[in-house]
Amino acid sequence: MIEVDLVIVGAGPAGISASVTAAEMGLSVLLLDEQPTAGGQIYRNVVKAAGTRGDILGKDYTCGLALVTALQSAAVTHVTDATVWKIGEDGAVAYSVNGKANLAQGRKVIIATGALERPVPIPGWTFPGVMTAGAAQILLKQSGLVAERAVICGSGPLIYLIAQQMIRAGKPPVAIVETQTKSDLLNAMQHLPGALRGWRYLVKGAKLLSEIKRAGVMRVTGAENLAIEGDTEARAIVFTHHGQTTRIQCNLVLLHQGVVPNTQATRSLRLEHVWSSGQRCFHPMTNKWGLSSLETVYVAGDGAGIGGAQAAEQAGAISALHAAFALGLITKADRDKRAAPILRMQSAELAVRPFLDRAYPPSDQVLKPADDTVICRCEEVTAGDIRDYARLGCTGPNQAKAFGRSGMGPCQGRYCGLTVTELLSQATGTTPDAVGSYRIRPPLKPITLGELATLEQTLTDETKGLI
Amino acid sequence: MNNASPFHNISPSDDLVTVTFDGIEYVLPNGANLAASLLEAGLRSFRNTPVSGALRGPFCMMGACYDCLVEIDGETRQACMTAVTSGLKIERAHRDKGLEND
């Protein structure tokens, strides 16, 4: 068993920056991440891809190279291909690498497991050939793949970024079908003065839109009633716009309705969570240092609430400074002095968020899916099923599991949890906070019995001094 | 390789190895992401669902959705979390369920 001051879960911007800062402060750090290289999804494969396709992916991607390089020269034990499947309140973290289980003991833990795409339950979203917009970016970053004849659908600035990258890669999308409306933009205007502190993002957005326009990509906003048609795979996207129906044939449909905190690890620890009405999702409650309701556990980055890569990087450093102080390596004065400029930058970084949240809300269609739409991809439970359970007296997501297995497949509720909470909240007329969420238990990811059995062997071998 | 694939590789590798998917040979980039490589090779669906037998393929590409499940050496694995190695024998996950429906 590895014993360290700090176990950090997730090597995205928050986890890397936390690792580097903690190591600088003199803490022993174990960084666990399930990918073969550091960077998280945002800087995925950045060491290799920055050189070969950095011009396509853009500066907001290649800037991650500096972060990953800093990690490589920091005194951090970075375990790659590590799937964390249990985090204990006492800082014990169980993980597997290549089918072999290990246990680490941290005095403090920073959870930096980032975001997931918000579920997009629309008819046909389970067909092969339907992916998240994030998946398209991962394919480009990790594998250099770009799709021909893709349609990007939904709401959120990420749509413009992936469209720009596809244009630069020579495969512009067939169309961009957006669900946000002009009135969403008008509503967002009240947040514009605050957002001007984050003017860099507004300028970037305007540049992206003009590049998309120059490329001649068809773009529709205020689209409704989206549905994907297919047989063995997706063939077309259909939607209505001002009452008219449009059908666009395509090879690939990329869905996006914003991203939400991945709360699997924080839920499994029973940390206190709260519903954000602005971002329509749950996030763990943290203070400005990222400290959760448990004094051993910090949550840094998008997993604590969506703020983007830069804010995540800042959050990681801030949590690491607090951990260094809590473990007696730096004084309170030193902590505060180092944290002050980072906290200021973070506040400027987050200034644009209320504007973006209002301008690009998730569509009504995904928040209130039609009865026959599958909402639990794993167990193929529909929105109508959940509404039926509510009529039969089901009051919460955990009861819904017993009624019809939603959330009990291999994804463990990652892509239906929020939808089930929304549906039950609507059906019972109670708040999402009162409805609550799925209870998440370890293992956080499915593991084999054989894998579990290796844990005892690993620990026995260690006791005997074999490893 | 397969012209039916909508995916185009902008930085192809020339270090290639052979794997099989349901007995059919595919030549894929060594060490590359398995889900991405199979998509590039023209494969669209990787598994059947255990409930209805419906076809599924990669959705999230980040290890969260489990829609890219395949079977390798009798073990169900996420193709998007697996690297391509020479001689991999890959099978559809829950293939029987799919055949049941035919």
What does this structure look like?
The complex is a heterodimer of chains A (467) and B (102). In chain A, strands 1, 2, 3, 4, 5, 6 and 20 form a seven-stranded mixed β-sheet that branches. A five-stranded parallel β-sheet of chain A has the order 8-16-10-11-12. In chain A, helix 1 (13-24) runs parallel beside helix 11. Chain A is globular and about 70 Å long. With 467 residues, chain A is an alpha/beta fold. Chain A has 19 helices and 22 strands. Chain A has three domains: 2-116 and 260-330, FAD/NAD(P)-binding domain; 120-256, FAD/NAD(P)-binding domain (3-Layer(bba) Sandwich); 368-435, Orthogonal Bundle (Arc Repressor Mutant, subunit A). By secondary structure, chain B is of the alpha+beta class. Chain B has a single domain (16-101), classed as Roll (Ubiquitin-like (UB roll)). Helices cover 14% and strands 30% of the residues of chain B. Chain B contains two helices and eight strands, in the order E-E-E-H-E-E-E-E-E-H. Chain B has helices at 34-40, 95-101, and strands at residues 7-9, 16-21, 24-29, 47-48, 55-56, 69-72, 75-78, 89-92. In chain B, the strands form two sheets. In chain B, strands 3-2-8-6-7 form a five-stranded mixed β-sheet, covered by helices on one side. Chain B has a two-stranded antiparallel sheet with strand order 4-5. Chain B is globular. In chain B, 46% of the residues are buried. The model of chain B has no long low-confidence stretch (mean pLDDT 92). Strand 9 (145-147) of chain A pairs antiparallel with strand 1 of chain B, so a sheet runs across the interface.
